[in-house]
C-alpha cells in the first residue's frame, strides 16, 4: 500500500501524531452479492421465470417463451441496477484505520465522514468468505449510536436496535482485522494476547482470527 497523506483521506483538523495504518474500499462483486443480496434476487427471478413459462405453456410454447422472456428481462434489469448501485457505493466509499480511530467516508450523492474513535469501540468482529473478502462490524459502547439507515449498506445486517458500523466486503479482511486488533490494543496500552476462543471476536487486546464462511 502506498503512503498517503492523512489530509487527503480525512477531514481537516487532524491531531498531530496520528498515522494511517490502512485504507481501502469495498470490493464491488462482494458488495453486490452480500450487501445488495444479488444472489437471492437472481434466484428469485430464475424461479419466477420458470413458473411463468410453466403457467403460460397451456397457451403454447410461443406464449410461454414470451412470458419467460419478460420476467427474465425484468430480472436482468433489476440485477443491472443493483450492480450499478454497488459500483457507485464502492467507488464513493473509503474506510480508514488510523492509530486513533476508524473513519468511514460514505454516501453516493452526499458524502459524509463518520469518525469512530477507538475509545467508542466496545469490540469488533470479522467474517471472511471463500473469496477472501469479508465484513468487519464494530460494536459501539453504550450511549454511542449511529442510525442504521445513515450507515446502510455499511452496517451489520438487521442490527436495528444497536447498529454496528461495518467495513463491508473488504479484501483480505482477516489481515485488516488483525491490524485493527493490534491498533486497538496499542491504543489501550495493552499487550497483544493470544487469540480469543470465539474466532469471530476481536477485542481491544486480541488478535483477529477470521471466521470462515462459504462464498
Write the layout of secondary structure elements.
Layout: H1 6-9, E1 20-24, H2 28-34, H3 38-56, H4 61-92, E2 94-98, E3 101-106, E4 112-117, E5 121-125, E6 127-128, E7 134-140, H5 148-151, E8 166-170, H6 173-187, E9 201-202, E10 211-212
Parallel strand pairs: 6-10
Antiparallel strand pairs: 1-2, 2-3, 3-4, 5-7, 5-9, 6-7, 7-8
Helix pairs in contact: 2-4, 3-4
Give an account of the 3D structure.
This protein is of the alpha+beta class. The protein has two domains: 20-26 and 95-212, PH-domain like, CATH 2.30.29; 33-89. Helices cover 38% and strands 21% of the residues. It has six helices and ten strands; from the N terminus they run αβαααββββββαβαββ. The protein has helices spanning 6-9, 28-34, 38-56, 61-92, 148-151, 173-187; strands spanning 20-24, 94-98, 101-106, 112-117, 121-125, 127-128, 134-140, 166-170, 201-202, 211-212. Strands 5, 6, 7, 8, 9 and 10 form a six-stranded mixed β-sheet that branches. Strands 1-2-3-4 form a four-stranded antiparallel β-sheet. A hairpin with a 5-residue loop joins β6 and β7. α2 crosses α4 (61-92) and α3 (38-56) packs antiparallel against α4 (61-92). The protein starts with 5 loop residues before the first helix and ends with a strand. Residues 1-7 and 193-215 have low confidence and may be disordered.
Amino acid at each position: 500500500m502506498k503512503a498517503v497523506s492523512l489530509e487527503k483521506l480525512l477531514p481537516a483538523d487532524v491531531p498531530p501524531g496520528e498515522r494511517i495504518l490502512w485504507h481501502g474500499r469495498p470490493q464491488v462483486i462482494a458488495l453486490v452479492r452480500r450487501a445488495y443480496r444479488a444472489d437471492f434476487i437472481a434466484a428469485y427471478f430464475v424461479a419466477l421465470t420458470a413458473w411463468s413459462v410453466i403457467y403460460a405453456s397451456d397457451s403454447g410454447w410461443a406464449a410461454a417463451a414470451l412470458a419467460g422472456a419478460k420476467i427474465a428481462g425484468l430480472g436482468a434489469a433489476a440485477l443491472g441496477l443493483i450492480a450499478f448501485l454497488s459500483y457507485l457505493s464502492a467507488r464513493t466509499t473509503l474506510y480508514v484505520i488510523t492509530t486513533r480511530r476508524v473513519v468511514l467516508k460514505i454516501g453516493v450523492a452526499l458524502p459524509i465522514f463518520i469518525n469512530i474513535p477507538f475509545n467508542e469501540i466496545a469490540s469488533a468482529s470479522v467474517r471472511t468468505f471463500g473469496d477472501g473478502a469479508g465484513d468487519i462490524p464494530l460494536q459501539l459502547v453504550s450511549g454511542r449510536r449511529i442510525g442504521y439507515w445513515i450507515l446502510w449498506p455499511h452496517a451489520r445486517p438487521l442490527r436495528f436496535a444497536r447498529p454496528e458500523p461495518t467495513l463491508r466486503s473488504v479484501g483480505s479482511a482477516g489481515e485488516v482485522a488483525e491490524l485493527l486488533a493490534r491498533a486497538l490494543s496499542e491504543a489501550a496500552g495493552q499487550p497483544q494476547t493470544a487469540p480469543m476462543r470465539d474466532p469471530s471476536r476481536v477485542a481491544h487486546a486480541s488478535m483477529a482470527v477470521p471466521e470462515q464462511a462459504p462464498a
